Fold this sequence. Notes:
Elements: E1 2-6, E2 18-22, E3 25-32, E4 35-40, E5 54-56, E6 59-61, E7 68-70, E8 76-78, E9 87-88, E10 90-93, E11 96-101
Antiparallel strand pairs: 1-11, 2-3, 3-4, 4-9, 5-6, 6-7, 7-8, 10-11
This protein binds FE2/S2 (inorganic) cluster (FES).
The site of FE2/S2 (inorganic) cluster (FES) has 10 residues, from loops.
Amino acid sequence: MSTHHVPGFTAPASGDLTTVEVAGRRLAVTVDDGQAYAFDDACTHAQCSLSGGEVEDGAVICPCHFAAFDISTGQVRTGPAKDALRCYRAQLLDGALTVEVPQ
Ligand code: FES
């Protein structure tokens, strides 16, 4: 794992998402109760951008076919997606975002 600092990060409003580029990966990021959550932006169903969706009750809802993934674990809560979403450890400290990704 390597820790990456994301310069110029602006936290999205509660329930919203934004995207960041980390080590060549496009990640969706949301912040819930001061905790940042980062995961692949591409839905595992048909690759729609999850950052165009919304977060409800600890799950990100894909805007295309409404699959829901747990933002902590990436597990599928509601299909049609079958495969879990890859999640990354993220930390928000004084407005600065760091994300750990595999090397
Ligand atoms: S692309 Fe996300 S549910 Fe189909």
